[in-house]
Design goal:
Pfam families: Aminotran_3 (PF00202). This protein has helices at residues 38-41, 50-62, 73-86, 97-114, 134-139, 143-146, 164-173, 198-209, 279-294, 297-316, 343-349, 372-391; strands at residues 17-21, 24-27, 32-35, 90-94, 121-125, 156-159, 177-182, 212-216, 240-243, 254-258, 322-328, 331-336, 352-353, 355-357, 361-364. By secondary structure, it is an alpha/beta fold. It is globular and about 60 Å long. It binds pyridoxal-5'-phosphate. Pyridoxal-5'-phosphate (PLP) is lined by residues 96-98, 101, 129-131, 183, 187-188, 216, 218-219, 244-245.
């Protein structure tokens, strides 16, 4: 397929799809694939989910957009559902993960100014990914994403991921810090996990220094790691949480949730989005949130994720070419000793769509609805291609 009329910003694979059903995608030649990347963590309920499709069809016949000049009933209902599932107080809606993070960054800055910090700074992490807008690419911890787009945005301080001592030091030396922004489990950066008590320690550090604790759950949210939000594994509440990807199951939506003092920072005129939280996307997202809850998809993500980890741990136990197997719920990374980008093609040839991130990490983000036999099938193919790759190299 020639995509010459589209600006050349993506390295695309030589395949495109006509339709999907559940965990499966079908290409133009009718081949079936297990979609183990879910549109990069977006299709949490799989493809063509009947309840989501029905909600979209019904809402499209009623009202697609009215703007935030008026009350929006679906937006209200979705915000209430998100608050109920998260313990947060209120929500701002945008159209993407980057926009959700922009809202968080603006909350942190205004929070800082309100308490007399003229040059508010936000601590961000090495290897972080927060999006591609100017502020969010600056917050991201990857030179590849930033190079060529300088001047970057001021007001960010970088720290190593998972290093509480480094953050404690920053707290001692930098009175301009007003917030921490981080992923509870890094996705694009290579499926990197935090030490066991780290989020609780961050919570305490933020309380002590009057910083906002802001978690980017764009990828980890909406059931992906086996709780609705990943921070819920740690029994803490952040001040700000951002989410997107799985929330709309493919319709563009981003949400910035705030709690306590962070929830009252923005007022009329401080922030906005023309499309943000429109009736159509909110109708779809409301079905997503309800379905994740009613069908206990967090539990399924825990169980299927444990099944995958168990299979991979057994298969690669004595294999020195596999340096690490990690993740939580249905967000799993298998790190190899060397770059393994070609595994994407090898998996596709065997009917499985995967992704390789950070050069040498096979990343799996299957839909939360995946069942045990599909999970076994996925594990078998992934184990085969990795064994083959290592054996033949
Ligand atoms: C994908 C992602 C983003 C960016 O989301 P967009 O919808 O592409 O703007 C931000 N943060 C994290 C953790 C992500 O995984």
């Amino acid at each position: 397929m020639s995509m010459a009329a589209v600006m050349n910003t993506y390295g695309r694979l030589p395949v495109s799809f006509t339709h999907g059903k559940g965990v499966y995608l079908y290409d133009e030649e009718g081949n079936q694939y297990i979609d183990a990347i879910s549109g990069i963590g977006v299709n949490a309920l799989g493809h063509a989910h009947p309840a989501v499709s029905d909600a979209i069809k019904k809402q499209a016949d009623l009202l697609i957009h009215t703007s935030n000049l008026y009350g929006v009933e679906n937006q209200k209902q979705l915000a209430e559902a998100l608050c109920a599932v998260s313990g947060m107080d209120n929500v701002f809606f945008g159209n993407s993960g980057a926009e959700a993070n922009e809202a968080a960054i603006k909350i942190a800055r205004l929070y800082g100014h309100n308490k007399g910090v003229d040059q508010p700074h936000i601590v961000v992490m090495e290897n972080a990914f927060h999006g591609r807008t100017m502020a969010t690419l600056t917050a991201s911890g990857s030179r590849k994403i930033q190079a060529g787009f300088e001047p970057l945005v001021n007001g960010f301080v970088r720290a190593p991921y998972g290093d509480i001592d480094a953050l404690t030091n920053i707290a001692k030396n930098n009175p301009n810090i007003v917030a921490v922004l981080m992923e509870p489990l890094q996705g694009e950066g290579g499926v990197n996990c935090l030490p066991e008590n780290h989020l609780a320690e961050i919570r305490a550090l933020c309380d002590k220094n009057d910083w906002l604790m802001m978690l980017d759950e764009v990828q980890t949210g909406n059931g992906r790691t086996g709780c609705y939000f990943a921070y819920q594994h740690h029994h803490i509440l952040p001040d700000v949480v951002t989410t997107a990807k799985g929330l709309g199951n493919g319709l563009p939506i981003g949400a910035c949730l705030a709690h306590g003092k962070a929830a009252t920072v923005l007022g009329p005129g401080n922030h906005g989005s023309t499309y943000g939280g429109n009736p159509l996307v909110c109708a779809a997202a409301l079905v997503v949130v309800n379905t994740i809850n009613q069908q206990q998809l967090c539990k399924n993500a825990q169980q299927m994720g444990a099944l995958l980890l168990d299979k991979f741990n057994r298969a690669f136990e004595h294999n020195e070419a596999v340096t690490d197997i990690r993740g939580q719920g249905l967000m799993i990374g298998i790190e190899l000793v060397r770059p393994c980008g070609e595994l994407v093609d090898r998996a596709r040839a065997k009917g499985v769509l995967i992704n390789v991130t950070a050069g040498s990490v096979v990343r799996l983000l299957p839909p939360l609805i995946i069942n045990p036999s599909q999970t076994e099938q996925l594990a078998t193919v992934v184990i085969d291609i990795i064994n083959d790759f290592i054996g033949n190299s």
